[in-house]
Write a structure and sequence with these properties.
Blueprint lengths: L11 H7 L3 E2 L2 E2 L3 E7 L6 E6 L3 E7 L3 H4 L9 E7 L7 E4 L4 E3 L13 E2 L2 E3 L5 H12 L4 E10 L1 H20 L8 E13 L2 E14 L4 E13 L3 H13 L2 E2 L1 H11 L3 H20 L2 H12 L5 E5 L6 E5 L4 E4 L5 E4 L6 H5 L5 E2 L1 E2 L6
Parallel strand pairs: 8-10
Antiparallel strand pairs: 1-2, 3-4, 3-19, 4-15, 5-6, 6-7, 7-14, 8-14, 9-10, 11-12, 12-13, 13-14, 16-17, 16-21, 18-19, 18-20
Helix pairs in contact: 4-7, 6-7
């Protein structure tokens, strides 16, 4: 069900080649992002570099074709963002897929079979799942090296907060053994594909829904770039991932469509929002520690004040100057004298300031 394609600090040496913005034969050093909606249902918006490709998005599983409803209960997202047709630099959001535990249905459904629309598959820990996912997505990879593969306790705690409501219900009915459990891990892989040596970071969570004899992957992401330019791309991937904003109207409609699970969906969504607010209130050091724990190599963050709304926004600190429009479009540069309003012949960009610290 995944698209088999294979993801960002951008230094000035390559920016002029990757994102040439010319005006009167002058080459500018910045990089422009535009806020776009997920294309299928406008479930969320995110920032992507101008000129990049986006494919996939929200999709629905037909329970009749799937053999049952277990993967049709909620919307799924398979979204790929690429710098070019080859996917030289790519960011991938993978869908949550529900699997059935062996033994479900009285043991009449063998491993590899289908139970109510879910493949019967032994529970995998997050690290094993990442290894299997990498092999599935890159069947032609050669000279593969696993540079890192470790648990992410911070990501696990975040997932557990989302599961706490359901687990409290199990406690109230005296069945704590049915409580949902989670695992989370991140990995860094290097490999050769089509003559290019790539480095790829992958992240996933696993939720064991033992009360329902099912389990699933969740929050599964990856990004890749050629090895020799990987470090230069990290801030761009930072910007894409942390720019995601869910459409509240879509979330409400999705919850309504799930009826019996609507209350759970909205409580989980509220928990995620609370976690995001907690992270935004923490110091920069703690925020970087959380991001390091959650996404391995993604570091170097700062808190900015949106010049149009006054809201606090967490973003990369890889650039000296950050500009923003009322629509959420961003422009980054290391030059104080570079004004995107002059470049694009508009007036909407305003420079953003770093949030003043409470102890200053």
């Amino acid at each position: 069900m995944f698209m088999k394609r294979g993801f960002t600090s951008v230094f000035l040496a390559c920016l002029s080649l990757l994102f040439p913005l010319t005006l009167s034969a002058k080459v500018y050093s910045g990089i422009a992002f535009t806020r776009v909606y997920e294309p299928n249902e406008k479930a969320f918006s995110l920032l992507i570099p101008k000129g990049w490709k986006m494919e996939g998005g929200i999709f629905r599983v037909d329970p009749l074709r799937a053999g049952g409803p277990l993967n049709a209960m909620e919307a799924k997202c398979d979204l790929l963002i690429e710098s070019d047709e080859k996917g030289s630099v790519a960011f991938h959001i993978y869908p949550d897929i529900v699997y059935a535990h062996p033994g479900i249905g009285g043991g009449f459904f063998p491993v590899g079979g289908n139970y109510q629309g879910a493949e019967v598959k032994p529970l995998m820990d997050a690290r094993s799942f990442l290894r299997a996912l990498f092999t599935y997505v890159h069947p032609g990879a050669r000279s593969v090296k696993v540079l890192k593969l470790r648990p992410l306790p911070g990501e696990k705690r975040s997932i557990d907060r989302g599961l706490s409501y359901m687990n409290r219900l199990f406690m109230q009915i005296g069945m704590p053994e049915l409580s949902f459990r989670s695992d989370a891990a991140g990995g860094v892989f290097e490999y050769a594909e089509n003559g290019v040596r790539y480095r790829e970071v992958m992240l996933t969570g696993i939720v064991d829904m033992r009360g329902a004899m099912t389990w699933k992957n969740t929050r599964t992401l990856s990004f890749r770039a050629p090895v020799d330019s990987f470090e230069r791309w990290k801030p761009v991937m930072d910007i894409i991932r942390f720019s995601i904003r869910f459409n509240p109207r879509w979330v409400l409609q999705e919850a309504k469509g799930q009826r019996e699970r609507a209350e759970i969906v909205m409580k989980v969504y509220e928990k995620i929002r609370q976690i995001d607010r907690e992270i935004a209130r923490k110091s920069r050091v703690n925020a970087e520690e959380i991001m390091n724990d959650n996404f391995l190599v993604l570091t170097g963050q700062e808190e900015y004040v949106n010049p149009h709304t006054g809201e606090i926004e967490t973003d990369t600190d890889a650039f000296k100057v950050r500009w923003e429009t009322p629509q959420g479009d961003l422009y980054y540069t290391n030059r104080e004298d570079e004004n995107p309003n002059d470049i694009f012949h508009i007036t909407g960009f305003r420079k953003t300031k770093i949030r003043k610290r409470r102890n200053e």
